[in-house]
């Protein structure tokens, strides 16, 4: 097992008024991966990132970065960590290039105009380098935040909802940027509530809710393990209830009894088999259907299910037990 680039153990944070933002987070990030942290608003994503980046003082727990105690070797390790914050935060009167230069200096790195030019060009900001930040559009401001985070060549980069509120084109652009960084070997942790983004970008996905990590897994494994099959039979004649003979299957009637819906399966083909068998059974039972649509559930369904279950139980769902 390679040494993790970041290792968080039992991290807790209770804010002054008593809000528990992190309720004991364990998380291990491997070098070179893209990790997506998914969670609803208020789940604790920004707090978790803030703790690693030194903006939030943890209430308890330990953090190791690059194999060393992050809190003990703060100054040295922090310069290897980049952050694109969720909130737009800069001196609006500053120019683009000065603001990016400043970020580099803040981490005690020597000025490097070539690197700064490279970063600005890669983000299509070079032509705007002398513009004041307040003159830029929201999307451009977000690009400047990214430029600032890249100016000191971090090995570990946090992107906190980098694409919240940006248009589709810029979002695609950022995805390309993130891909390019991965190519360079940068480890990336991004938070998002756009499931599509996690689905598109991440190697692994973690789901966080109410300050707890509910599940961490390879994206593909998560979708296989928790993925469900949906089969919708449009009936020729509506049914008043699901026939008793089919009671063993995960079925529901929708749209005033005119659509019989199967939702289930173990992600290993069981769902597909059961839907096929159901089609035959219905025919045998003389229940005619005029349409059948099937689909595999997405990461979004998985996410919604996990978070809903967490709200019901207020307890973390153990990995494996969730399947
Ligand atoms: N500075 C703060 N003071 C008090 N409570 C806070 C502060 N920042 C965040 N919180 C609370 O902590 C919880 C987690 O917030 P946050 O980490 O911002 O979640 P997320 O980024 O997932 O939306 C929320 O209940 C939020 O209201
Ligand atoms: Mg946040």
What fold name goes in the CATH topology slot of the domain at 6-80 and 154-224? Rossmann fold
Shape: elongated
Give the structural class: alpha/beta
| pLDDT < 50 runs, ≥5 residues | 315-323
- Considering the protein shown, what is the CATH homologous superfamily of the domain at 6-80 and 154-224? P-loop containing nucleotide triphosphate hydrolases
Mean pLDDT: 87
Strand percentage lies at: 25-35%
At the first level of CATH, what is the class of the domain at 6-80 and 154-224? Alpha Beta
Q: What is the number of helical segments per DSSP (H or I, 4+ residues)?
A: 10
Cofactors, ions, other ligands: adenosine-5'-diphosphate, magnesium ion
> What is the architecture of the domain at 6-80 and 154-224 at the second tier of CATH?
3-Layer(aba) Sandwich
Gyration radius, rounded: 24 Å
Distance between the termini: 26 Å
Largest sheet: 6 strands, mixed
Reading the helices and strands in chain order gives EEEHEEHEHHHEHEHEEHEEEHEH
Biggest β-sheet: strands ordered side by side in the sheet = 6-7-8-3-9-10
Number of strands: 14
Helix content: 25-40%
Write structural notes for this entry.
The chain is α/β, with parallel strands linked by helices and 323 residues long. Helix 3 (96-106) runs parallel beside helix 5 (138-150). It has helices spanning 45-52, 74-78, 96-106, 113-122, 138-150, 168-183, 195-201, 219-226, 270-284, 299-313; strands spanning 6-14, 20-29, 34-38, 60-65, 68-69, 81-84, 156-160, 187-192, 204-209, 212-218, 229-235, 251-254, 259-264, 289-296. Mean pLDDT is 87; it is low at 315-323. It contains ten helices and 14 strands. The relative contact order is 0.13. 33% of the residues lie in helices and 26% in strands. The protein has a six-stranded mixed sheet, sandwiched between helices. Strands 2-1-4-5 form a four-stranded antiparallel sheet, with helices on one face. The chain has a four-stranded antiparallel sheet with strand order 12-13-11-14, covered by helices on one side. Among the domains are: 6-80 and 154-224, Rossmann fold (3-Layer(aba) Sandwich), CATH 3.40.50; 228-296, Alpha-Beta Plaits, CATH 3.30.70. A hairpin with a 2-residue loop joins strand 4 and strand 5 (68-69). Adenosine-5'-diphosphate binds at residues 15, 17, 19, 21, 39, 41-47. Residues 15, 17, 19, 21, 39, 41-47 line the site of adenosine-5'-diphosphate.
